[in-house]
Amino acid sequence: MKQIIKKKESEDDSLFGLLTSYKNLYSYILVLESQEGSIAVIIAKNPSSFDELIKTKYQQYKPVRRIKMGVSRLFVKYISPEYIIKFYGPLLGLKIPENKVHIVNNLENGYFILEVPSHYKEQVTQCIKRISGLSPQKKYEIIEKSLADQEVEI
Questions:
Q1: What is the bridge-based pairing of β-strands 102-106 and 62-63?
Q2: Comparing C-alpha atoms, which of 150, 136, 149 is closest to residue 22?
Q3: 64 near 82, Cβ under 8 Å?
Q4: How far apart are CA 135 and CA 132, in angstroms?
Q5: Which CA distances in Å does 55 have to 48, 49, 125, 144?
Q6: Model confidence over 5-46: pLDDT tens digits?
Q7: Burial state string for 11-21 with b = 16 or more CB within 10 A and e = fewer than 16
Q8: How many helices (H) and strands (E) does the chain have?
């Protein structure tokens, strides 16, 4: 009788196997709303950045609860904030006039802030749902596009 020896695959070519090499990358999202009529969307590598920002610049803002926005989580696995900004652009895919927006791009320190007027709250909510609910295929597409852009810049 002939013995069948199965060859072990050392590399996993499935989508989740490809994404596991990026398992240490996370993007955390915080949405803050002020009484004065503005919304701040903060995307950070580390949620400890939120505490520093709330204590300094955003003391008058209140966090918008994820349940109120209708999302189950406010983080994205396998993608860093830089990849999100490169893919969606600095307005995160929102169709808002640039003169009504204030952007703080401090990705060197691990966070990105987008401030918009509060009457765009529904669009911001849809944007957060789209980003936090990315499919694995879309995440891999974002990673590929960002890595291809990095190679072109070098």
A1: unpaired
A2: 136
A3: no
A4: 9
A5: 11, 10, 24, 36
A6: 444 444 555 665 666 767 788 999 999 999 999 999 999 999
A7: eeeeeeebbee
A8: 6, 6
Among all chains, which residue has been given the structure tokens 């703080």?
Answer: 104
Write out pLDDT tens, residues 46-64.
998 898 888 888 999 999 9
pTM recorded for the entire structure:
0.83
CA distance 103 to 144: 25
Closest CA to 50 of 3, 126, 101, 111: 111
pLDDT digits (tens, 9 = 90+) for 97-118: 989 999 999 999 889 999 999 9
